């Protein structure tokens, strides 16, 4: 609420403005012109015309028109000046209830409730409008107790009208709203469409309930206008009942109710994967809404287009469709739409998201904190940190370097790009750390296998940890093999912090135990879980069984994984590898055949490395790279060099019907080995100055490549 404005009535009375020479206009024509100017947003012109007119034009209706315009346009300065003028030139105004109501409404709408209340208290006579405009002003500022006080006083003087009830309800929560609902029922005001719509909106804002009450009010209405339908739609969105919102919109369309921009925004926003609708069905309905928006012309509304972009993005729609929608609005693109586009591409095509951000800057648009956090999310999916550095420079330039949300995004982006030092620098320079800041830094340490640093940072936390904090800590312990520390942290969650472990925490614990060969303990932990284990937990156990040759337990984990996530190739590949390691090549072949029959495809292993400000991608066999032969030659020499100091290729997972020499050749052509050889060939052009070779992968590194890299590091 704006700062109260205390104005002396006596001082106002001394204000004087002499009118200019009179005109020959009729009063009715003059009033029409004032209304035309003020309704078109030309309030200054309307007031200038009014002040220059002779006194015969300064009557109740002209004053009322101008005060109403000042209230609508929130023009307090013009309203105060007009009030000065009226007190000086319209002596009967203190006794004019209608005009005083307009003045109270102007001050209330502009947020100066103290002065509005002062005028209200000084009125010699009040009517229902006097009470209603003041209640509306307090409701607009969310001052519920004052609304109730005024409503109680109003009941002693006059019968509240539908607008008074609607105003009070607009500021109420669930508990207070039910009391007003009971009063409306007692006074038979619930039959009013305005009161009913306010009740639906009030119940619709309640996250913990309200659906039954809202539906009861909606279905009992004798007449439902468009606001009624839209309010019900908004409620379904709050309750995360997307399917109900879709059904309601379908009924609207079938009954010929019509729709507006708010309707489309409500139903489009309900098409979220978390709102209980199958993704395929949501995507189909989103396409239908897109067609309807095109047909009705609402697609030109920037809010509708932005909502469609977000819906397509959330539902995994085709990025080309999203881009076409964006290009079709080239004349009215704002920062919200650009940010929506960047968000849509951030995960699926981070390079395109970064390009869109660069284009946004060329269009002279000013990115906000949400834009920066979205593009930094895209940067976290790129191989190199230079994109994050470029965005960071724009963050500083735009003055968002003190923004906590943006700094949290920077910590995450730098860590994902491989630069833990830059993540720590951002964290250390932050003036304020919220819970996300601490969790982001803990995750960064865990990602880089720095469990000691993560545990030390956790001991320095000055905010209460949440479940995500312990996922980060347990993950760090898992990557570093700190079993006992991980067990202590897991036990302390409920004992010391009152946090009940969830699936993510159990998955981390299974991984911690399994990585160190304690697979039986991991299985016992799964058996004790208070909820059903998910595919992540079974895949963690399966990976441990693969490492330690636990064939029988692996069969169970693989079966569970295939049951819960039939499209995941991990259950087939790991079992095949386990059989190969044990020499059961026939069983391994059957697993591969089963995988082919189920049409499950293994994600190809890819590696990326930055050389000379250019990112190079490698696949197994190196067929994609133009310098393939030169890379093979350098890699062959490197292998011979490492053999001399103890490297022995691990061929246990290679195809059993291939000669040993060919098995080794298959291993040597893994994507990460090719990337390493290429990096050594171009050591002088490495982005990191030749001291560190940073290779990014999309899948876990194999045992042989891990040994190869470790020995290679030791000899340099």
Automatic annotation (TrEMBL):
Keywords: Repeat. The keyword Repeat applies. It comes from Rubroshorea leprosula. The keyword Methyltransferase does not apply. GO terms for molecular function: RNA binding; zinc ion binding. PPR repeats lie at residues 96-130, 434-464, 466-501. Residues 646-712 form the DYW domain. This is DYW domain-containing protein. GO terms for biological process: RNA modification. Belongs to the PPR family. PCMP-H subfamily.
């Amino acid at each position: 609420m704006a700062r109260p404005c205390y104005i002396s009535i006596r001082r106002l009375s001394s204000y004087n403005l002499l009118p200019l020479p009179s005109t020959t206009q009729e009063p009715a024509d003059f009033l029409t012109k004032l209304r035309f100017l003020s309704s078109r947003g030309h309030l200054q012109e309307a007031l200038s015309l009014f002040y220059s007119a002779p006194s015969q034009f300064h009557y109740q209706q002209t004053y009322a028109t101008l005060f109403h315009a000042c209230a609508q346009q929130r023009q307090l300065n013009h309203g105060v000046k007009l009030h000065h003028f009226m007190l000086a030139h319209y002596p009967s105004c203190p006794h004019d209830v209608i005009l005083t109501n307009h003045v109270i409404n102007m001050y209330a709408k502009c947020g100066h409730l103290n002065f509005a209340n002062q005028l209200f208290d000084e009125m010699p006579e009040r009517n229902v409008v006097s009470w209603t405009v003041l209640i509306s002003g307090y409701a607009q500022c969310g001052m519920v107790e004052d609304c109730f006080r005024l409503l109680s006083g109003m009941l002693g003087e006059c019968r509240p009208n539908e607008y008074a009830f609607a105003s009070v309800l607009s500021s109420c929560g669930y508990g207070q709203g039910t009391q007003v609902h009971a009063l409306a029922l007692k006074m038979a005001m619930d039959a009013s469409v305005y009161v009913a719509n306010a009740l639906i909106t009030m119940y619709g804002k309640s996250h913990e309930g309200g659906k039954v009450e809202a539906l009861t009010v909606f279905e009992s209405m004798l007449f439902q206008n468009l606001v009624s339908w839209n309010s019900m739609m908004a409620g379904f969105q709050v309750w995360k009942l997307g399917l109900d919102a879709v059904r309601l919109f379908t009924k609207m369309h079938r009954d010929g109710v019509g729709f507006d921009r708010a309707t489309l925004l409500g139903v489009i926003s309900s098409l979220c994967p978390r709102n209980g609708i199958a993704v395929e069905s949501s995507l189909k309905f989103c396409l239908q809404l897109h067609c309807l928006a095109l047909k009705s012309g609402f697609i030109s509304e920037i809010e509708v287009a932005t909502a469609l972009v977000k819906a397509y993005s959330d539902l995994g729609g085709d990025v080309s469709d999203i881009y076409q929608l964006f290009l079709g609005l080239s004349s009215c693109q704002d920062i919200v739409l650009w940010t929506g586009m960047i968000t849509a591409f951030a995960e699926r095509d981070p390079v395109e998201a970064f390009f869109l951000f660069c284009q946004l800057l060329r269009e002279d648009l000013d990115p906000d904190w949400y834009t920066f956090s979205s593009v930094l999310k895209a940067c976290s999916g790129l191989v190199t940190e230079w994109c994050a550095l470029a965005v960071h420079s724009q963050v500083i330039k735009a003055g968002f370097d003190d923004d906590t949300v943006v700094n949290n995004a920077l910590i995450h982006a730098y860590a994902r790009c491989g630069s833990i030092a830059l993540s720590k620098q951002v964290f250390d320079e932050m003036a304020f750390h919220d819970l996300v800041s601490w969790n982001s830094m803990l995750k960064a340490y865990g990602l880089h296998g720095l469990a000691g640093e993560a545990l030390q940072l956790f001991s320095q936390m000055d905010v209460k940890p949440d479940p995500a904090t312990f996922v980060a800590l347990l993950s760090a312990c898992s990557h570093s093999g700190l079993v006992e520390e991980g067990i202590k942290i897991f036990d302390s969650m409920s004992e010391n912090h009152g946090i009940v472990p969830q699936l993510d925490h159990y998955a981390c614990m299974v991984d911690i135990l399994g990585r160190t060969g304690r697979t039986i303990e991991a299985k016992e932990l799964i058996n004790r879980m208070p909820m059903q284990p998910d595919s992540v937990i079974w895949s963690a156990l399966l990976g441990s069984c693969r490492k330690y040759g636990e064939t029988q337990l692996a069969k169970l984990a693989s079966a569970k994984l295939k049951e819960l996530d039939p499209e995941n190739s991990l259950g087939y590949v790991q079992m095949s590898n386990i059989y190969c390691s044990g020499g059961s090549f026939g069983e391994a072949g059957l697993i591969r055949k089963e995988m082919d029959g189920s049409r499950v495809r293994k994600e190809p292993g890819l590696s990326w490395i930055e050389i000379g400000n250019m990112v190079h991608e490698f696949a197994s066999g190196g067929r994609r790279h133009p310098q393939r032969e030169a890379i093979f030659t350098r890699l062959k020499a490197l292998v011979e060099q490492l053999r001399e100091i103890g490297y022995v290729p691990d061929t246990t997972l290679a195809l059993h019907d291939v000669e040993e020499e060919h098995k080794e050749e298959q291993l040597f052509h893994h994507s990460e080995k090719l990337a390493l050889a290429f990096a050594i060939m171009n050591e002088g052009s490495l982005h990191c100055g030749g001291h560190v070779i940073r290779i990014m992968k999309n899948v876990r590194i194999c045992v042989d490549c891990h040994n190869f890299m470790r020995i290679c590091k030791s000899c340099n």
